[in-house]
Amino acid sequence: MPVSAATAPTGGTDQQPPGDLRERAAAALIAARARTAALTDPVTDADLTAQHSPLMSPLVWDLAHIGNQEELWLLRRVAGREPMRPEIDPLYDAFAHPRAQRPALPLLGPAEARGYSAEVRGRVFDLLERTAFEGSTLLDDGFAFGMIAQHEQQHDETMLITHQLRPGGPVLTAPEPGPATGPAPSAPEVLVPGGPFTMGTSTEPWSLDNERPAHIRETAPFWIDTVPVTNAAYLAFIADGGYGEPRWWAAEGWDQIRGHGIEAPLFWYREAGQWLRRRFGVVEPVPADEPVLHVSWYEAAAYARWAGRRLPTETEWEKAARHDPATGRSHRYPWGDADPTPAHANLGQRHLRPAAAGSYPAGASPLGVRQLIGDVWEWTASDFLPYPGFRAFPYREYSEVFFGPEHKVLRGGSFAVDPVACRGTFRNWDLPVRRQIFAGFRTARDA
User: In terms of domains, do 151 and 286 share one?
Assistant: First the structure.
């Protein structure tokens, strides 16, 4: 598709020299491919080609799709090269075939998918070595390379979801996050002052089209939970009959839980008077102090009504996460403008679970709200809609075709999200029935 300056993201405020961009792009691509290997190497070829849930693709589809998109955007669109395997393009077009139908396609096998993706990556590194990062809006600030690194990391998160749905014993390992350390939150909720703030971005070099442009939003003052809603708090909702009381539920949500017999978050079950959960092949007691995970938007909204509260709007969430009342600035992250470190947030599949609520005091916002980045995606009350002045780039199918009331916005990332694909402005979206994703929530109320 032709790319015009009118639809392209503008450059960052701090332009990087080509050498620094090359190093950043190479590091992001290497990290993504290492994670892809960690998710696909430990399982058998039969596991790679099986469909573990109709909600998800076979892992081998994701593996080859990653390479196909990299070839399409970097080798064909940026470098102008001829297609390597044009006959496979329709197989790996995410819009051409629903996930449930992909196992029936003549997909590349595991060895062929790995070989294809590796060959694409070798050619991409050759391209990266001599790219001038100019003369094309796709190349400004290394955007195309950053987009591809984010795309692969997003599919890595999708593959991690498939691992969670996969039956059988554990094949993935990671250290535990450990107990919360440092000072505990001083209050269960934080008051966010009313007034204007800058939402979105026009300067983040690798931001995606739905994060743009920066614009001013007004909010009334509101209260927001200091930490995400925990399993212990959600268990109180269950114990009080929350899943059996229609007044807490939107009509569509009530139909959903009644029609599917839903009585708890996905992967939970009760045995001998104790709530257990299955997590990547391990069965364990539900940990009381972790943020609740694997709940739909309907479940999150029902809990909030039961608690006498509501879900925050997307605007409120971003203001709580980025706005500094002392300076009036909107930071890149709750803690400031510096990139995330392990002290700030639980990101990048460093752990295979959320950290305890109240963790990462170094990652708190200026107002003291914690864990806004990492641990669990957080459902908001908002539909996924474009910002004023939105322009699709570099293709409509990334965001524009999903705009509307059918999809709800999630914010903040999860333990499964890599830092390259997680910012204070980053927007995720999904259908309100989705439960397999790594989603939780926090609540708010009017001041």
Answer: no
